[in-house]
Specification:
Blueprint (H helix, E strand, L loop, with lengths): L18 H14 L14 E4 L5 E4 L9 E4 L16 E5 L2 E5 L7 E7 L2 E11 L6 H4 E4 L6 E6 L6 E6 L1 H4 L7 E3 L2 E2 L5 E6 L12 E9 L2 E9 L11 E7 L3 E7 L14 E8 L5 E6 L2 E5 L2 E9 L14 E2 L3
Keywords: Cytokine, Disulfide bond, Glycoprotein, Immunoglobulin domain, Secreted, Signal
InterPro entries: FN3_sf, Ig-like_dom_sf, Ig-like_fold, IL-12, IL-12_beta, IL-12_beta_cen-dom, Immunoglobulin_dom
Protein name: Interleukin-12 subunit beta
Length: 325
């Protein structure tokens, strides 16, 4: 069937066609144009997520009351051979298209048309099977108790990822404010910057509810994680301000990183110093704040910090600093 170069499901308010014949046409289309939505690099404005093998309803979102045509992809198929393992069946009820026994060949973009006018479109995607552990896919951390935190999505086959905070996102509501990736990190995954409304001065009683959606081929993965902000605190590396020589010791003064919350009298940090002895190269660690006394006979040192009240993750170590006096 030819229709201005497009493959049509030929559903309107006035006509229907045999369900089996329609199924065969669609499979023929996919044999000719296997791309579909493979490699989607963004989230469609409208999509429906279905479980494989279940039924799903697609809606032509329009106020138009006349006859219209459903289309799937954009290739002409003159004939199609019967394929035994293709079982998807279509049925139109008013402005809805019911897709039964959803499987891979039926996934992609569906649109409804009135003549040459495109009325609306919807992508049909399938819910991803259980895969990697969510914690292995995504890591989040906060440099301070201020209003933002960061997340990295691990490198993989996913071509589009987005994150959302709150119950609106975890429950899939239209009011969810999704955050798209701010770019790819060095390992090839996705990185995100998110904002929250928690007060840094109040006791934290409510968990953050973070939902992630990721697309791979026609599959969409959705996972939700709940955590306290304090559980992802990881300061940046501190600053070694001074090494003051005393009679038998060195007094090392350390400042918090510039990104750490203030005032520092309220948001305190403890510091761990690792140093190497000159005589035998032995490495020793000692904890203190804001200054630490260590032996004079050392060759080099480095420092890291954490929040002692919640025993947060340690920051990254500063580079090794040579000690001369």
């Amino acid at each position: 069937m030819k229709n201005n170069g497009s493959f049509s499901l030929i559903f309107s308010s006035c006509h229907t066609i045999p369900q089996k014949t329609l199924s065969l046409w669609i499979f023929g289309l996919l044999l000719i144009d296997p791309t579909g939505v493979l490699g989607l690099h963004h989230f469609p404005e409208n999509y429906v997520m279905a479980k494989r093998g279940n039924s799903v309803t697609l809606t032509c979102n329009t106020n138009f009351d006349g006859p219209f045509t459903w289309k799937f992809a954009a290739n002409t198929v003159d004939e199609a051979e019967e394929i035994e393992d293709f079982n998807t069946i279509y049925k139109q009820v008013g402005k809805n298209l019911i897709v039964s026994d959803v499987d891979s060949p039926a996934l992609g973009e569906y649109s409804c048309w009135s003549g040459e006018e495109r009325l609306s479109s919807t992508f049909l995607l399938v819910e991803a099977e259980e895969g990697n552990n969510f914690d292995s896919l995504m890591k989040c951390w906060a440099k301070s108790y201020d209003c933002t935190f960061s997340c990295n999505w691990a490198k993989g086959l996913y071509t589009a990822v987005r994150l959302g905070l709150g119950d609106d996102c975890s429950e899939g509501r239209k009011s969810c404010h999704w955050v798209n990736s701010s770019g790819q990190h060095l390992n090839g995954g996705f990185q995100f910057e998110l904002s929250h409304s928690l007060s840094p001065y109040a006791e934290e009683t409510n968990m953050l509810v973070l939902t992630a959606e990721a697309i791979i081929n026609h599959n969409i993965l959705r996972r939700t994680k709940r955590f306290y902000l304090r559980d992802i605190i990881q300061p940046e590396s501190p600053q070694i301000v001074n090494c003051q020589e005393m009679e038998q010791e060195l007094n090392v003064t350390i400042d918090p990183p510039s990104t750490w919350s203030s005032p520092h009298s309220f948001f305190s940090l403890e510091h761990e110093i690792q140093y190497k002895l000159k005589d035998d190269g032995k490495e020793i660690k000692v904890i203190g704040s804001p200054s630490v006394l260590i032996p004079k006979k050392i060759s080099m040192l480095r420092v890291r910090s954490r929040d002692p009240l919640v025993l947060s993750n340690w920051s990254q170590w500063t580079p090794w600093k040579n000690v001369t006096y």
